[in-house]
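debug: dumping io for the single-chain case to check the tokenizer round-trip. Nothing else runs in this session.
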Amino acid sequence: MKRNNIKLLSQVLISAFVLSSCSDSFLEDKKNYDNVNAGIYDYYSGANARVSDVYAWSLPDPNSDANWKYNCTGNADDQSKSTEEY
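debug: decoded output
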């Protein structure tokens, strides 16, 4: 009997949490915090600069140490020395 009460209470709490977790108003109030507007893509130079910027953000920094995101930065570290290309 006690387990049934705990299961029922947990189901009620989970369904209350799911139904009231978030509203749709945050989608309507979404602001663009980027400094780039859509007009940058009107010209080849602007689109090329934006693509180059996004590409540069995705590359590892060779001057930094290895971390969780880029475990090999291109330096002569233990991981790069274990390959045949080194």
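debug: round-trip ok. The radius of gyration is 25 Å.
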